[in-house]
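Need a sequence for this fold. Nothing fancy.
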């Protein structure tokens, strides 16, 4: 079995997600402190400063904040794309029997929160934020479950990782389809042409990582100018990287290994710091009880946990899938609660959802509160119930 699946990258990912989660949490606390001191204006002035190059043909002059959200976050999405492809080729999504439960769980955990939010906000100015509670933050969620050590079976950790990866794929599709600006076909076709060229390189057996990343920079540029959010370019590039099903490190796994620590230790913490600089105002506290705040909080805490649990329960009763080995139903509900840690992706979609700055800040604050509650409740439940020694479902 070890010949078929290279687990080294996954172990490294879990380790760095744990440490990255601690750094991420620290950056959030630091950002909230800075945002409510006299340093806030200085930091925001720096983040809004325009840097880059611009001419008649090339437009690459943006604020530091946009470079972070559209540029560095494309590297985050590149890592997500690499994880998705690796799981499809050699991991928990590599066969229907393995993939069916995390795929169904991710779908259930995305649709119910979106429905709850939309039902509460339908017809209002905040209705466009329905995608906010759909997402799961893989770094935070894995950091929390890793803290539990052997109190949960390893199969449950792998299930959560696979679920979060499918969840990320759904979030990427939602961003590409529903949260992009008007599409400029000419730029999109150029990006598509470069993407097809990278697929050709893959088919020709080209293994050099730079041969994919250099054209990938041009994919990012043209996708950015096409109106589709630029971070999607990272996923497109990832899909073209060569990989194998044996234990030998492939170009995809090598790049994933190289990116995991910089993304978890630098890029995501920077994104978290820059996007949780939230000056606490009375309107935000009041916003937690508004349709927007309730929709996000209920969506992430109740919608995620119930959606994941319910779809797993239905799949088991219909004998479509089994629970992870050694897991019980209380643990599945606990994993569902951890799925409600929507932090990075939810904040990202919040930024794309509204033009009103106050609404964006209220959404971020609600995401932060909901994610902390979901993480705390999930950790407490999983720590309390322990692991089951028996399979919860018959073969």
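Here you go.
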């Amino acid at each position: 079995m070890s010949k078929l699946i290279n687990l080294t990258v996954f172990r490294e990912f879990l380790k760095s997600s744990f440490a990255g989660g601690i750094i991420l949490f620290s950056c959030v606390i630091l950002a909230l402190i800075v945002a409510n001191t006299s340093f806030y204006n200085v930091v925001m002035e720096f983040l809004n400063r325009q840097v880059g190059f611009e001419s008649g043909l090339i437009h690459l002059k943006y604020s530091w904040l946009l470079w972070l959200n559209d540029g560095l976050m494309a590297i985050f999405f590149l890592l997500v794309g690499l994880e998705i492809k690796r799981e499809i080729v050699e991991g928990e999504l590599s066969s229907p029997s393995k993939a069916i439960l995390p795929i169904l769980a991710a779908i259930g955990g995305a649709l119910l929160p979106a429905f709850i939010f939309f039902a509460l906000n339908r017809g209002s100015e905040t209705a466009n934020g329905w995608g906010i509670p759909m997402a799961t933050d893989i770094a935070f969620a894995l950091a929390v479950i890793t803290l539990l050590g052997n109190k949960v079976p390893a199969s449950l950790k792998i299930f959560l990782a696979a679920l979060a990866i499918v969840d990320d794929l759904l979030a990427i599709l939602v961003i590409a389809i529903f949260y992009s600006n008007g599409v400029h076909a000419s730029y999109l076709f150029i990006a598509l042409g470069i993407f097809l060229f990278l697929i050709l390189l893959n088919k020709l057996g080209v293994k050099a990582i730079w041969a994919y990343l250099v054209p990938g920079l041009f994919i990012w540029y043209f996708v950015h100018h096409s109106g589709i959010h630029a971070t999607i370019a990272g996923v497109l590039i990832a899909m073209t990287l060569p990989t194998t099903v044996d234990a030998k490190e492939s170009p995809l796994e090598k790049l994933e290994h190289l990116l995991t620590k910089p993304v978890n230790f630098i890029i995501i913490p920077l994104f978290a710091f820059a996007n949780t600089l939230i000056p606490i105002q009375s309107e935000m506290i009041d916003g937690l009880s508004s349709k927007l705040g309730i929709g996000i909080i209920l969506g992430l805490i109740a919608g995620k946990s119930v959606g994941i649990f319910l779809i797993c329960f239905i799949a088991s009763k219909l004998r479509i899938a089994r629970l992870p080995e050694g897991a019980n139903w209380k643990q599945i509900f606990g994993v569902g609660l951890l799925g409600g840690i929507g932090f990075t992706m939810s904040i990202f979609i919040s930024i794309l959802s509204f033009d009103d700055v106050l609404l964006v800040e209220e959404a971020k604050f609600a995401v932060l509160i909901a994610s902390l509650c979901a993480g705390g409740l999930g950790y407490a439940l999983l720590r309390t119930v322990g692991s089951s020694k028996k399979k919860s479902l018959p073969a």
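For context: The chain is about 70% helix and 5% strand.
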